[in-house]
Amino acid sequence: MNDLSRQATRLEAIGGRFDPWLVGAALALAALGVVMVASSSIAIAENLGAGPFHYLVRHVMFLGVGIGLAAVLMRTELKLVEKYNQVLLLGCLVLLLLPWIPGLGVSVNGARRWINLGLSRFQVVEAVKGLYIVWLASYLVRFRDEVNATWPAMLKPLGVAGLLIGMLLAQPDFGSATLILGITTGMLILGGVNLPRMSAPVLAVLPVLVALVVFEPYRMRRVTSFLDPWADQLGSGYQLSNALMAIGRGEWFGVGLGASVQKLNYLPEAHTDFIFSVIAEELGFVGVCAVIGLYALLVGRALYLGLKCVDMRRHFAGYCAFGVALWLGMQSFVSIGVNLGLLPTKGLTLPLVSSGGSSVLMTCVALGLLLRVSYELERATRQVARLRPDAAHAASPADAPPPQAPMPPVATAGYRQADARPVRAPASAPSPQVASGRGTSRVEPTFGSFA
């Protein structure tokens, strides 16, 4: 075996490490969710005659299945996930059609968002979020030159997002539709899209979204009740007014775990959409700050990992991290904002904390993907650190490579050679212009370009 073969074998034997900050924040939120679901759902479950711990057992079961799926994804190479990106996009469309199949789809309060799996219902949009993020990350890798330079490459993901949003509005699910639009916009900006060019379709969509609110009576009632919930405290403002009373009772340190009054059939959906209000009542301002801090740590760490991946030219991993960060960050922001009366009432769960089988399951899967990104990033970092001293020791001054020689592709095993090829330009040369077609020199994204 020659020296290069032995070196490649040693590099392949190097493993990675799952990010401890992500693991710690996720476990803390999951543990908090188990405690708060137990506290907030007892009265609701007894009122339905289902037993005091019905929702707790259900939540723990879904959390266990979600952890199992996350463990599988944590051991799956990202190159295998990227390989099936087109199948995942097709899966998004199929999933959104399933609730309309008679006998399979389930309608609740006029909304067709669920499918019946026998033991439980499953809200398909939760799976669509994750599948769509993976497809969009792959798309940005394959067309990251053109996304910044041409209209068609930029409009294609917006068109796909528009199709998904239209299918969601037919269910109807305005909150998830808005979330998909936000994720798409954020990932395109982080992928280097030309901001002035992108502003045109975004501004064109805003009047449509406003019209969907204004001309739909129940959505308009939510907006007006959010502005002044006390004007109709027993009607359209009932949810928000009770949520605000729960938050006000918590004061600095809360009334104590299990001592909430609003959860006793006063606050609707106390164990799902409005669980944050129960947390504020029982744990107070200090508990609220701790929860917000955990989400800030989770999302901030995900964005940091995404930036590190992009710096190492592992773009698919980086864009997946960006997408998961946007998903969890936006959803937690909206859920907390609704509970605090900062945003109109909308049914979005608090990730990992709220009771809701579909949400808990798919949030665990998303975190499994994020942890896999952290593992492969750490592995690549260790490979590069191992490679450079070996190369310096093996090469004599006479045959040392020039300073601008490309790094051997083994340091980025599993990814395209184009992704591992460094961009080199003379120090005095002007910045390269973005290519207008494929097959030209690769230009790195600049996280939203005005050029």
Automatic annotation (TrEMBL):
Pathway: Cell wall biogenesis; peptidoglycan biosynthesis. GO terms for molecular function: lipid-linked peptidoglycan transporter activity; peptidoglycan glycosyltransferase activity. It holds the Pfam family FTSW_RODA_SPOVE. It is a multi-pass membrane protein. Residues 399-409 have a biased composition (Pro residues). Belongs to the SEDS family. FtsW subfamily. This is Probable peptidoglycan glycosyltransferase FtsW. It comes from the Bacteria. One of its GO terms (biological process) is regulation of cell shape. One of its GO terms (cellular component) is plasma membrane. Its EC number is 2.4.99.28. The chain crosses the membrane at residues 21-44, 56-74, 86-102, 122-141, 153-170, 176-195, 202-220, 283-304, 316-338, 350-373. Its main location: membrane. Residues 391-451 are annotated as: Disordered. It comes from Pseudoxanthomonas taiwanensis. Peptidoglycan polymerase that is essential for cell division. It catalyses: [GlcNAc-(1->4)-Mur2Ac(oyl-L-Ala-gamma-D-Glu-L-Lys-D-Ala-D-Ala)](n)-di-trans,octa-cis-undecaprenyl diphosphate + beta-D-GlcNAc-(1->4)-Mur2Ac(oyl-L-Ala-gamma-D-Glu-L-Lys-D-Ala-D-Ala)-di-trans,octa-cis-undecaprenyl diphosphate = [GlcNAc-(1->4)-Mur2Ac(oyl-L-Ala-gamma-D-Glu-L-Lys-D-Ala-D-Ala)](n+1)-di-trans,octa-cis-undecaprenyl diphosphate + di-trans,octa-cis-undecaprenyl diphosphate + H(+). The keyword Cell membrane applies. It is found in: Cell inner membrane; Cell membrane. It is an enzyme of class 2 (transferase).
